[in-house]
Amino acid sequence: MQFTSLSLKDAYTIELTPRGDKRGRFTRLFCAKELTHIGHTKPIVNVNHSYTQKKGTIRGMHFQHPPHAEVKIIKCLRGAIFDVIVDVRKDSPTFLKWEGVELTENNDRMIYVPEGFAHGFQALTDDVEMIYFHTEYYEKASEGGLKFDDPKLNIAWQLPPIGVSERDLSFELL
Fold it and tell me: What are the boundaries of each domain within the chain?
């Protein structure tokens, strides 16, 4: 695993190192020991899989409030996404800044989303599948979110947005 800092404090891309031969390939997606190089020490307690049917669909921007704030590590297994994170830590030098990273089934890249960040994505292809590693259990009472089209954030989505859930549309503007 190779870690590259993003412009937002404590966020990284993780470049994976597949090994292959004539039979196929093998890629390690998680290694607690290697993650200590970027200061990650919390255990992974949930692994989730998502499927998004239509290109242009936006999911997010979601986070959990403390004490249930979580680290997420995200990988696209099928298709392609524009993955977006927003720093919502009020004391951070990158507060309310966003960054987007393209994750695809072929680019062997993941994104490390620190605690205190909102996360969302837009499907760039039909039939997208993703895997999420989480350091906290989901707590409905701690869930929070930002509007995907909040003018204060001004996120530059790659495609016209479709398929936004009622929940995601209900988040208030900043």
Answer: 2-169
Q: Is residue 112 classed as helix, strand or coil in its secondary structure?
A: strand
- Judge if the upstream peptide bond of residue 61 is cis by omega within 30 degrees of 0: yes
Task: Give the pTM.
Answer: 0.94
The span from the CA of 52 to the CA of 76, in Å, is 11
Q: Model confidence over 53-74: pLDDT tens digits?
A: 999 999 999 999 999 999 999 9
Burial of 132 (0-12, 13-18, 19+ CB in 10 A): middle
Backbone angles phi, psi at 34, to 5 degrees: -65, -35
- Any idea which fold 2-169 has? Jelly Rolls (2.60.120)
Mean predicted lDDT score pLDDT of the chain: 96
Reading the block at residue 100, the tokens are 């987007």
pLDDT for the residue 34: 95
Task: Name the band, by pLDDT with cuts 50, 70 and 90, for residue 117.
Answer: very high
DSSP helix/strand/coil, 69: coil
Active site residues: 62, 132
